[in-house]
Design brief:
With 108 residues, the chain is mostly beta strands. It has one domain: Sandwich (Jelly Rolls). The protein contains no helices and nine strands. The strands form two sheets. Strands 2, 4, 5, 6 and 8 form a five-stranded antiparallel beta sheet that branches. The protein has a four-stranded antiparallel beta sheet with strand order 1-9-3-7, with no helix packed on it. The chain is globular. The model has no long low-confidence stretch (mean pLDDT 84).
């Protein structure tokens, strides 16, 4: 059975993993789910994509203009074209964050 790749963005925000507020990871494109848990303290984890102009811009919810940011332990669905993705932390600590692709069919 085919599986979608998972990408770790933060394995504990203390370590500043490569997919964090840095160079990002290579996203193959399509639908995905961001999963995060942290000590939030009023902070958030926001998903960003690198534009063709080499600027990090916020990813929005699929079909909505709201910025895609988690403020509690949980998940959110997003859609993004192929390119670099990263997560950015605002005041949250001990962040564990990953993204995983969602298949376009039930076969995986």
């Amino acid at each position: 059975m085919a599986r979608r790749q998972a990408f770790d963005l933060f394995l504990n925000s203390v370590d500043q993993s490569p997919g964090g507020a840095g160079t990002g990871i290579d996203w193959p494109g399509g639908d995905g789910m961001i999963i995060a848990e942290a000590t939030w303290g009023g902070g958030n984890v926001q998903l960003q994509i690198l534009s063709r102009n080499n600027t990090w811009v916020n990813v929005t919810y699929t079909g909505n203009a709201a910025v895609m940011a988690l403020t509690v332990n949980g998940t959110s669905i997003f859609r993004a074209p192929a390119g670099k993705l990263r997560a950015v932390i605002t005041t949250a600590t001990a962040v564990y964050c990953s993204i995983v692709g969602i298949p376009g069919n039930v076969a995986g």
